[in-house]
Design a protein that fits this description.
The protein has helices at 15-27, 67-76, 91-96, 99-121, 159-178, 200-209, 229-242, 259-274, 303-309, 317-330, 332-339, 342-351, and strands at 6-10, 32-37, 57-61, 81-84, 129-135, 182-187, 189-191, 214-217, 223-228, 248-251, 256-258, 285-288. The chain is an alpha/beta fold and 354 residues long. The structure holds nicotinamide-adenine-dinucleotide and thymidine-5'-diphospho-beta-D-xylose. It catalyses: dTDP-alpha-D-glucose = dTDP-4-dehydro-6-deoxy-alpha-D-glucose + H2O.
Length: 354
């Protein structure tokens, strides 16, 4: 197995990146972790309480598109692995403003790859790996049956997923052309603590608590396959250490839900927690105009990572969602902080002011 002595994590102040750093540092004491993040609306250093004081941890505020900065960090910290999360990640934002998605997700990935390739070829370190964190959305949409496997052709439908597919293909090209040791993971929808409340689960929790309408797109019968962020983190660690460079690994937990069922479940859990009469919060559900190009169903086959690397999720959805609801209830100050200012402007544009 590959056990790096120093890793560069990009986007480590975001939802999954910060969960990954917390998980990875606990499991790999002594490994240096450098977090490069520009701190967009989605990045928040408060997601990293608990690791920020460790002597093994360093935060650098900067842009993955800045080749010089990336070059310096790789050399100075003798980086042996890059774990690349940094991205624009929200589909609705990509529909109203696609340009930044291409810049960050496609160009940013290429800059990281190029600097990493030079770093490795200069023999600055003895060993090197690049893990690119991607998404099942690159495969497009499914009908009522079937699963995405690693062989499913890429057919992205939103500017977000197209930019992620573009980045996956550049990673592939670096592997094929330069023999560059890159791995790609494609995970299903994540949920858990520190997820920005523009995404379905935290948005609904936030609105239920605030007694605001719950905007369900279209008929609410789109299907997503949900995985706890801690399980995603453990899967990434497993692939980084044991995956064969050049390969793709799907990550998922066999946990498909209709959106409307998730929203109703959250309503019922919160009625209980908030002492509301049973069924009250469901009254907030409001069907709104569908998302443009809305993918109907995602479902991932994670057979390969289980078979080849022995990884399996540890959370049941029942436990994960209950813990997540409790986390948001206990962390109102975090939610308040990330939803003030720029987020309010976004929310009004997306759902109309009220
Ligand atoms: P997020 O939006 O919460 O976090 C993204 C982070 O990247 C933020 O901290 C942001 O500041 C940083 N960033 C953005 N542009 C940057 C730049 N130019 N330079 C440096 N940092 C920059 O996203 P997330 O939900 O944590 O997703 C992380 C990764 O995982 C993304 O690549 C996403 O495509 C992928 N992914 C997400 C999910 C999901 O359900 N959220 C599922 C599968 C894959
Ligand atoms: O207000 C809403 N109402 C609603 O019905 C929102 C925000 C979402 N939805 C629906 C759209 C989707 O069918 O819920 C589903 C989930 O939506 P998102 O949370 O926006 O996630 P999704 O579009 O599925 O993409 C996510 O999973 C894959 C992440 O945002 C991506 O970064 C990841 O790659």
């Amino acid at each position: 197995t590959f056990v790096p002595r120093a890793i560069l994590v990009t986007g480590g102040a975001g939802f999954i990146g910060s969960n990954f750093i917390t998980h990875f540092m606990a499991a790999n004491p002594g490994c240096r972790v450098v977090n490069l993040d520009i701190l967009t609306y989605a990045g928040n250093l408060k997601n990293l309480v608990g690791v920020e004081k460790s002597p093994d941890y360093r935060f650098v505020r900067g842009d993955i598109c800045n080749a010089e900065l990336v070059r310096e960090l790789l050399a100075e910290e003798r980086i042996e692995a890059v774990v690349h999360f940094a991205a624009e990640s929200h589909v609705d934002r990509s529909i109203t403003g696609p340009e930044i998605f291409v810049r960050t997700n496609v160009l940013g990935t290429q800059v990281l790859l190029e600097e990493s390739r030079r770093h490795r070829e200069a023999k600055a370190v003895e060993r090197f790996r690049f893990l690119h964190v991607s998404t099942d959305e690159v495969y497009g949409t499914l009908g009522e049956t079937g699963y995405f496997t690693e062989e499913t052709p890429l057919a992205p439908n939103s500017p977000y997923s197209a930019s992620k597919a573009g980045s996956d293909l550049i990673v592939r090209a670096y592997s094929e052309t330069y023999g560059f040791p890159a791995l790609i993971t494609r995970c299903s929808n994540n949920y858990g603590p520190y997820q920005f409340p523009e995404k379905l689960i935290p948005l609904m929790i936030h609105n239920i608590v605030a007694n605001k309408p719950l905007p369900v797109y279209g008929d609410g019968r789109n299907v997503r396959d949900w995985l706890h962020v801690k399980d995603h983190s453990s899967a990434i660690e497993t692939v980084l250490k044991g995956g064969k460079p050049g390969e793709v690994f799907n990550i998922g937990g066999n946990n498909e839900w209709f959106n409307i069922d998730i929203v109703q479940l959250l309503c019922d859990l919160l009625d209980e927690r908030l002492g509301r009469p049973k069924g009250e919060s469901r009254g907030l559900i409001t069907f709104v105009k569908d998302r443009l190009g809305h993918d109907r169903r995602y479902a991932i086959s994670a057979a390969k990572i289980k078979r080849e690397l022995g990884w399996e999720p540890s959370y049941t959805f029942e436990r994960g969602i209950a813990e997540t609801v409790d986390w948001y209830l206990a962390n109102g100050a975090w939610v308040e902080e990330v939803t003030s200012g720029a987020y309010r402007d976004y929310y009004e544009k997306q759902y109309g002011g009220e």
